[in-house]
Amino acid sequence: MSNCNMLPLTKLGIGEEAKLVDIQDGHGIRQRLSVLGLNPGVRITMIQNGSWGPVILGVMDSRIAIGRGMANRIFVTKD
User: Fold this and answer.
1) Which of 8, 9, 50, 78 registers the highest number of CB atoms within 10 A of its CB?
2) Is pLDDT of 4 > 80?
């Protein structure tokens, strides 16, 4: 897969779906996100993505809120 297909999670619009492909940060962040179900390969639906405040995602049967800074380090593909 080409890196040019990846985009930061924060670039998804409301209702868009994507596949998580990479988390660009240290092991601690990856571990925290893994506990929330955010692992490479998982399908994500953007529920809320405003200019400020948290990003809210649909992951499996759950909704997850994460900070915008963390969301900018999560990369997805819309395939």
Assistant:
1) 9
2) no
Name residues whose C-beta falls within 8 Å of residue 59's C-beta, 6 or more positions apart in sequence: 36, 37, 38, 42, 43, 44, 45
User: Quick check: helix, strand or coil at residue 57?
Assistant: strand
The CB density around residue 38, as the number of other CB atoms within 10 Å, is 21
Of 31, 1, 35, which is closest to residue 19 (Cα–Cα)?
1
Q: CB–CB of 77/44 below 8 Å?
A: no
Is it the case that residue 15 has pLDDT exceeding 50? Answer: yes
Domains and CATH numbers, the chain: 3-77 (2.30.30.90)
Kind plus residue range of the DSSP H or E element containing 34: helix 27-35
